Amino acid sequence: MKQPNLADVEVLLAERDAVTGWLARIDAAGSSVPPAVRDRVRQDYQGRLNGVIERLQGHGDAIAAKLAEDRAEQESHADRANAANEALAEAQLRHLVGEYDQSFFETERNRHAADVARHEQALDVVAERAGRLEEVLSLIIAPARPVETSGVTASATSMGVEPVRAAAPSPAEVVQEAVDLDEVELVDDHIDEQLLAIFDDPGELTEEAVELVDEDVVPEAPVASDRGPLSFRPGTGMPPEQERVIPSFGMPAEIPARFTPVAEPARTVPTPTPAPAVSPRPMFDEDIVVSGPPPEPTVVTSGRTLRCSECGAMNTAAEWYC
Q1: Three-state SS across the chain?
Q2: More confident residue, 314 or 77
Q3: Cβ(19)–Cβ(49) below 8 Å
Q4: Structural domain contains residue 102
Q5: With CB atoms 3.0 to 4.6 Å apart as the test, which of 138, 215, 222, 315 could cross-link to 319 if both were Cys?
Q6: Is the pLDDT of residue 80 over 80?
Q7: What's the whole-number mean pLDDT along residues 132-140?
């Protein structure tokens, strides 16, 4: 790697300082100078300054490498100087405890002191050189460019195309949007008030005080039937208008049209009568004497059977009588 010539760098730095001073004082010169001449001289100085910066930048890599070496050498000299100081302090301690006599202590002290002075002097030289190199690097490093908003904008600008910008909303749209936001907030507040109203005293609420917000009409839920799966009564399997009372005593739901049921005779509850005097029962049945009119024959009413009581014919299960 090319080693930088610090003398050339110093010459360039001196020229840079001179040109910078000239540029700073050009405006303070006499006002009798025509503006065109002043601008031409300013452009000349600016061009010379740019040339100096370019030549310094040509030494940038070499200067950075030399600066890294100087920093490493600076750390090495600092470590050696610290070690020499510790050795000198150790010699003093050994002399105080009586291990080293005066003559040996003087020899050790002179030797360690010379090492400390040599390393400190080298450390100062390297530190000064490293500081100068850092200053040069800070002068030749170009300032950071402003960050582009986006790659598309940068590409369009470099190609001479004006980037498309989003159209700003018109004042009417802004006002309309603000009005819409206010209406939404009012509706939300109104709904919140209605929701909180359910916790109020029911006596204080009236139909005039409650104002419902327009909502989609929801169809009413169908009323549960008196019979069926939605009620507590079992369904008959027939529509409500065709339901009939299921007869008791095992009668079928469908009664034949030609059959007329006979009304069941009313049952009367016998009135209790005082029990007659009990006479001694005869020993034999032949001794019983029947008194009073003979009893009427009892008509036996047969139940509903499959055999006809009149002709004795057998009927089918769907019919009761022939």
Answers
A1: CCCCCHHHHHHHHHHHHHHHHHHHHCCCCCCCCCHHHHHHHHHHHHHHHHHHHHHHHHCHHHHHHHHHHHHHHHHHHHHHHHHHHHHHHHHHHHHHHCCCCHHHHHHHHHHHHHHHHHHHHHHHHHHHHHHHHHHHHHHHCCCCCCCCCCHHHHHHHHCCCCCCCCCCCCHHHHHHHHHHHHHHHHHHHHHHHHHHHHHCCHHHCCCCCCCCCCCCCCCCCCCCCCCCCCCCCCCCCCCHHHCCCCCCCCCCCCCCCCCCCCCCCCCCCCCCCCCCCCCCCCCCHHHCCCCCCCCCCCCCCCCCCCECCCCCCECCCCCCCC
A2: 77
A3: yes
A4: yes
A5: 315
A6: yes
A7: 80
Q: In terms of residue numbers, what domain contains 114? A: 6-140
Out of 121-135, 143-157, 274-288, which region has the weakest mean confidence (pLDDT)?
Answer: 143-157
Decide if 138 contacts 130 (C-beta within 8 A): no
Q: Within a domain: residue 1?
A: no
pLDDT range class, residue 45, cuts 50, 70, 90: very high
Q: Residue 17: name the closest of 135, 113, 99 by CA.
A: 135
Answer whether residue 208 is part of any domain: no
In the chain, pLDDT over 70 holds for what percent of residues? 44
Residue 38: inside a domain: yes
Number of compact structural domains in the chain = 1
What's the whole-model pTM score?
0.36
- Longest distance between any two alpha carbons in the chain, whole Å: 181
Distance from C-alpha of 171 to C-alpha of 167, rounded to nearest angstrom: 12
* Residue whose structure tokens are 């490093």: 141
